[in-house]
Amino acid sequence: MNTHEIPALQVDDLTVAYRERPVLWDVDLRVPQGVLMAVVGPNGAGKTTLLKSVMGLVKPLAGRIQIHDRPAREQRRITAYVPQRNSVDWDFPTSVLDLVLMGTYGALGWFRRPGEAERERARGALRRVGLEDLEGRQISQLSGGQQQRAFLARALVQEAQIHFMDEPFQGVDATTERTIVELLKELRAAGKTVIVVHHDLQTVADYFDWVTLLNVRLIASGPVAEVFDEERLRLTYGGRLAFAATGGGSVAAQPVFGRLAPDEERKGS
Amino acid sequence: MSSFLQDYTLRMVLGGVLALGIFSGALGSFAVLRRQSLLGDALSHAALPGIVLAFLLSGSRATGVLLLGAAIAGWLGTLAIRAMVRGRLTREDSALGIVLSVFFGLGLVLLTWAQRLPGAGKAGLDKFLFGQAATLVRSDVLLMCAIALPSLLLLVLFWKELKLLTFDAAYARALGLPVERVEALLTLLLVLAIVIGLQTVGVVLMSAMLIAPAAAARQWTDRLSRMVALAALAGALSGAGGVLLSSSAPRWPTGPAIVLCASLLVVASLLFAPHRGILWSWLRFRRNRRRLDEDLVLYHMLQMAQHHAGRLDHPHARRVIQSMTPRADVRPVLHSLEQAGWVRRREGDSWSLTSDGAERALSHRAERERPPS
Ligand SMILES: Nc1ncnc2c1ncn2[C@@H]1O[C@H](COP(=O)(O)OP(=O)(O)OP(=O)(O)O)[C@@H](O)[C@H]1O
Ligand SMILES: [Mg+2]
After folding, report:
1. Bridging pattern class, strands A193-197 and A162-166
2. Is the shortest distance between the CB of A268 and ligand 1 below 6 Å?
3. Are B177 and A105 within 8 A, CB to CB?
4. Min CA distance, B372 vs chain A (Å)?
5. From ligand 1's centre to the CA of A237, what distance in Å?
6. DSSP state, B342?
C-alpha cells in the first residue's frame, strides 16, 4: 500500500478575498498523511480563512483543494472540523451528550436519529476528553476549557481521517492543554492527520512535527525541524518578534520567542 | 361549557386558534433560537400586499387564494432580504427593516385603493390587519390544519438537520449537509406558520405568536425538543385563552386577546420559571447569602469560644456576635441556626454553639483554611 504517498491535504493556487484585497494569496500546500501540523501566523494572516476554505465555508476566488486526492467537498465524511469556540451560542438548549452526537449526523443520513450505538460512541468520545461526568449538563454550564473539549469530542465521533482545528488551545489552562495535546498525539499515532491553528510559538516544536507558516501568502511548510527557524518566522511576523536564541546554531535548535503584542490587528483594506 | 362548545362559530374559532398556536409556537422556537425574531415580523408584514394583490388579480376572496398570495409575498420578502445581505448592500437588520416597511407600506396603499373598488368592501380585506377570528369558517380551519399538520411532520422528519442548522450552521455545512436547502425549508415553514395566522391574528401582531410562546418555553427547559413542545403548548393555551377572553367580554377582538395571553405567559415565565426565572434567581441568591452568613456566624463563635480555654459551648452576647458580622443582621441568622440545632440560646440574649454546631464550624474552618488543590 502506498497510501502515504497520497497527500492528506493538497491546496493549489488558493486565493480568497472577502472584499477586494485577497486575505489568502496563491497558497500552495501539500500535507502528508499522519502528521500533526501547526498553522501559525499573525492575527489576520488568514489561518481561519484557510480552514474555512477547506471546509467549504467560504468560496475561494481561485484554487483547488483536495483531500486524499479527491475534491475536498466530496470528502466530508472523512474530514472533521473543530471551529473556534466562540462561533456558537452556548445558551442553546441542549446537553453535552447531544452536542457530541451532532458529530454523527453526517454519517447518519436523512431521517435517521442517533440511536444507542451513536450514544455509546459519543460517551466514548466524552471519556477521551475527560468530560464523561458532564454528559447530561446544559452546555451553557460548561467552562471555556470544557466547551473546547466538548467540541473536540464532537469531532472525534466523526471518526474522520483528517482533522482541522481552529485554536483548540485558546483560553484553556495548562492541564486541559496537556489533555488536548495527548489527544492530538493519539490521533496521529492512529494514523490520522491533524491540522491545528496555533498561536503559541514556544510550544510548536514540542507539540507538532509539521508546521505551516502563513501570512496571506504561504511562507513555508514542512517538518518543524526543517522550516521552523528564525529567518522564516521573521518573514512571517515581520519585525514584530523578539528572538532570544538558545543552543548553538544547529538547525533543530529551539529559539525562544518573546510574546507577541496581543490582538495586534492587521489594517484591513 | 358544553353550550360553549356547541356553538358553531366558537368551535371553528377554537379549532383555528389551536392549529395556529401549536404551529407558530413550534416554528417560533427555531426563529427565536436563530435570533431571527425580526424575520417573523418582516415576513408577516410583507404578506399584506400579497393578500391584496391576490384579491385584485383573481377577484376571489376565498381564503385559500388570499393566503397563497400572502405566502408568495412572504417568500419574495425572504428572497429580497437574502439578496440584500448576500450582495452586501446592507446588514441583515437593515434589510429586514427595509422589507418590512416597503412591503407593508405597499400593502397599505393597495389595501386603501382596493377598498374603494365597487364590491370590494365586502371582501373584508382589512381583517388581515388585526385579524378577525369570528370570520373563520369550517373550510378555513380545515385549510389551516392542512397546512399545519404536514408542516409539523416535516419538522419532525428533518429534526436533526434543523437543530444543527440552528445551533451551528458552519459545522452543519462542514459535515456536508445541504445547508441552503435546510435553511430554505425552515424559512418556508416559517412563512407557512405566518400565513395560517393571518386571518386570526393579522399581519401586525402575527410575529408575537411566533416569538412569545417560544420565549416563554425557553424559560422552562434546557432541551430543544421540550422547548418546542412547550412552545406549541403555550401557543395553544394562548389561543384558547384569547378565545375565552373575547367570548366572555364581547367587543374584545380575538387576535389581540390571544397575543395578550401569550404575553402574560412570557411575563409569568420570566418571573416564575425554575432556574432561569427572576424569582428563582432571587431566592437562590438569598438562600446562598443566608447560608454564607450562617457559616460566618458559626465561624466567629468558634473562634471566640476557643479564646475561652477551648470551651466550645461558651456563651457570647448577641451584640458581640453582631459586631463581628457587620454585613448582616445576625438575629434571623441565629434563629435559623437555632432551628438547625447548631446554636443554643442562653440566659439573656447570649448564644453558644451546640456540639453539632461546633463540629460543623470546625469542618468548615478546615475547608476554608485548606489551600485550593
Ligand atoms: N467575514 C469576513 N468578512 C470580511 N473580512 C473578513 C472576514 N473574515 C475575515 N476577514 C478578514 O480576513 C483576514 C484574515 O482573517 P482570518 O480570520 O482568516 O485570520 P486569522 O489568521 O485566523 O487571524 P486570528 O489569528 O486573529 O484568528 C483578516 O484581515 C480579516 O479582517
Ligand atoms: Mg482565526
Report:
1. parallel
2. yes
3. yes
4. 15
5. 16
6. S
Q: Do the strands A210-215 and A217-223 form a parallel or antiparallel pair, or are they unpaired?
A: antiparallel
Question: In whole angstroms, what is the distance from residue A262 CA to residue B133 CA?
Answer: 60
User: Which ligand sits closest to the CA of A45?
Assistant: 1
CA distances from B36 to A81, B29, B181, B184 (A): 26, 10, 18, 14
ipTM of predicted complex = 0.86
Size of interface A-B (CB pairs under 8 A): 77
Binary contact (A93, B157; C-beta < 8 A): no
Residue B159 amino acid letter:
W
Tell me the nearest-neighbour CA distance from A4 into chain B, angstroms.
24
Residue whose C-alpha is closest to residue B128's, from B60, B48, B64: B48
Asked if residue A83 has its Cβ within 6 Å of ligand 1, the reply is no
**Burial degree of A21 (CB within 10 A; 0-12, 13-18, 19+):** exposed
Q: Does A71 touch chain B (CB under 8 A)?
A: no
| Domains along the sequence of chain B with CATH | 2-273 (1.10.3470.10), 280-369 (1.10.10.10)
On the CB side of B16, CA atoms within 13 Å amount to 30
How many Å separate Cα A133 from the centre of its chain? 26
| A56/B contact by beta carbon, under 8 A | yes
Q: Read off φ and ψ for residue B225, nearest 5 degrees.
A: -60, -45
Residue B19's Cβ-count burial label (10 Å; 0-12, 13-18, 19+) is buried
User: How many residues belong to chain A?
Assistant: 269
Q: What is the pLDDT of residue A3?
A: 54
- Cβ count within 10 A of residue B222: 20
Secondary structure class of B140 (helix, strand, coil)? helix
Q: Which residue is listed with cell 496571506? A: A216
Q: If contacts are CB pairs under 8 Å, which of residues 71-90 in chain B contact chain A? A: none
CB contact under 8 A, A55 and B218: no
Residue B157 in contact with partner chain A when CB distance is under 8 A = yes
Does the distance separating the beta carbons of B173 and A94 come in below 8 Å?
no
Rounded to whole angstroms, the Cα distance separating B263 from A253 reads 67
Residues of chain B contacting A72 with CB distance shorter than 8 Å:
none
Of A219, A204, A106, A209, give the one whose Cα is nearest residue A159: A106
Residues B32, B50: Cα–Cα separation, whole Å: 25
Tens of pLDDT along chain B (373 residues) come to 455 566 888 888 999 999 999 999 999 999 999 988 889 999 999 999 999 999 999 988 888 999 999 999 999 999 999 899 888 888 888 999 999 999 999 999 999 888 887 766 666 788 888 888 888 889 999 999 999 999 999 999 999 999 999 999 999 999 999 999 999 999 999 999 999 999 899 999 999 999 999 999 999 999 999 999 999 999 999 999 999 998 887 778 889 999 999 999 999 999 999 888 889 889 988 888 888 888 888 888 888 888 776 677 788 888 888 888 877 788 888 888 888 888 888 888 888 888 888 888 888 877 777 665 5
Q: Is the distance from CB of B203 to CB of B128 less than 8 angstroms? A: yes
C-alpha grid cell, residue B188 = 418556508
Dihedral sign (CA A75, A76, A80, A85) = positive
Q: What is the DSSP string of B262-300?
A: HHHHHHHHHHH-TTTSHHHHHHHHHHHHHHHHHHHHHHH
Chain A residue nearest residue B182, CA to CA: A110
Which residues in B lie closer than 8 A to residue A55 (C-beta atoms)? Answer: 170, 173-174
